[in-house]
Amino acid sequence: MTDKNITTPPAARKFFIKTYGCQMNVYDSTRMSDNLSSAGYVPTEKAEEADLILLNTCHIREKADEKLYSDLGRLRLLQEERAKNNAAAPIKIGVAGCVAQAEGEEILRRVPAVDLVIGPQTYHRLPQILSQVETGAKIVETDYATEDKFDHLPLPSAAAVRARGVSAFLTVQEGCDKFCTFCVVPYTRGAEISRPAAQIMREAEQLIAGGVKELTLLGQNVNGWHGLGADGREWDFSRLLFHMAKELPGLQRLRYTTSHPRDMTDSLIAAHRDLAVLMPYLHLPVQSGSDRILKAMNRRHKADDYRRLIEAVRRVRPDIALSGDFIVGFPGEEEQDFAETMRLAADIGYASAYSFKYSPRAGTPGAILNGQVTESAKTRRLQQLQDLLSTQQTAFLHSKIGTVTNILLEKRGRHQGQMIGRSPWLLPVAVQTGAEIGTVIKVKIAAAERNSLIADEADKTAKAVKFA
Predict the structure, then answer these.
(1) Are strands 14-19 and 92-97 parallel, antiparallel or unpaired?
(2) Distance of alpha carbon 22 from alpha carbon 406, whole angstroms
(3) Beta-carbon neighbour count of residue 190 at 10 Å?
(4) From CA 109, how far away is CA 30, in angstroms rounded?
(5) Which of 2, 91, 256, 329 is buried deepest, with most CB atoms within 10 A?
(6) What is the C-alpha to C-alpha distance for residues 367 and 359, in angstroms, rounded to an integer?
(7) Interior CA angle at 274 toward 269 and 276, to 5°?
(8) What's the whole-number average pLDDT of the chain?
(9) Above 50 in pLDDT, residue 465?
């Protein structure tokens, strides 16, 4: 017999987050998940099961808004289907991130099915915003928060940290004051803000206690970090790195991205020599090899400045893997300008690089510049550059064959007994081993594939390289 006084507790509401774009968006989605979990929501990997669907958007890539509205069209149909079958549990749809910041009310106007729009600086308010949404309100929160959002975000639970795996992102800096003429970041992420060292350390300690072995520090301009140090004084980024290396004994590997050439200080370059925990990988965007185009982009460095920086880094860390960003077809770019970009790329020799055709972003100075380059010229130039970069990447991969190094095991591979680890140069490495996830093992690189390496577990007498 059932006791009629016993009531079944309501099922926990489920949420699904789709993340577009950069590593900082991955981090933001993770923190939104932490925030929602602390408010009683439960994550799901299936959008059709969710009571709340959040699209965390990125405005950097071409046609970002078109992709968003296409996805919203599909979600509207899912929302309508749920309403037909279960009116008591409607799906709420939210848009977060940089497109949300840029579009704001326009998203609600174009897609009335959307319930909330939140910018990158306001997602710490999600639980409060959702309580308003539950009453039927449509909410747009894109004002820059007056409070520090990180002070209002809960630290991740032990279960949430375990779900991150052995490598995790940690945002230390947001926004940008550089105002490159092609870039929307200053308008969508705001001015540069550096988190205090103590706040960063608390989050890092929580991650390491939960099993994280490798941290990647994130920022739109991460090496421009200049925050309040543990001694109450302002520190620069290199001081933060040294502090983390010393005060986090469980931290085995440290990385950072993305950097600006103007903030590659002598002390930061020295950190690549002096910190064994700092991995030999540097992502340093240059965008163009032409001084004329760099000036039009407002990069405020010259091609030879960049070359000298790379020479300095390689002097202290000859094994470093270099990565970069290039934009071809910026307004006014002529064939000679592009030839200078090809020459710089050939001079540097990248382990990997990202290259894109220039795409105007509304509200940026570049969008209204004269001398817009034809699409056919952009396509041809991009293909030429990518062919060169692909050749360089292949050469870098093959240069590692026969190398003995250490890798951090991150996940199981596709084959029985296979594990996938991360090399010091950020490349994935497949190896047959009985070691567990989270272990650092010594391997000998046996072969190279297109974007990864194959290795054999090295015998215990083999001499490991010093950096892992």
Answers:
(1) unpaired
(2) 27
(3) 19
(4) 28
(5) 256
(6) 8
(7) 115
(8) 91
(9) no
Where do the domains of the chain lie?
14-141, 149-399, 404-457
The secondary structure element, H or E, covering residue 101 is helix 98-103
Count how many residues are written for the chain: 468
Domain 14-141: CATH class, spelled out: alpha beta
Q: What is the DSSP code string of 325-372?
A: EEEES-TT--HHHHHHHHHHHHHH--SEEEEEE----TTSGGGG-S-P
What DSSP character marks residue 278?
B
Helix (H) or strand (E) holding 458: none
Q: Tell which residue, 286, 267, 287, has the closest CA to residue 278.
A: 267
Asked if the model's pLDDT at residue 322 lies above 80, the reply is yes
Instruction: Compute the average pLDDT of residues 213-219.
Output: 97
User: How far is Cα 38 from Cα 154, in angstroms, rounded to an integer?
Assistant: 7
The label of the residue with tokens 């590593």 reads 23
- Of 32-36, 263-267, 347-351, least confident by mean pLDDT is 32-36
Cα gap 302→424, rounded to integer Å: 30
Taking domain 404-457, whether its CATH number is 2.40.50.140 is answered by yes
**287: three-class secondary structure by DSSP:** strand
pTM: 0.89
- Exposed e or buried b for every residue in 37-48, given b needs 16+ CB within 10 A? bbeebeebeebe
One CATH from 3.40.50.150, 3.60.15.10, 1.10.287.110, 3.80.30.20 for 149-399:
3.80.30.20
**DSSP-derived secondary structure letter, 221:** T
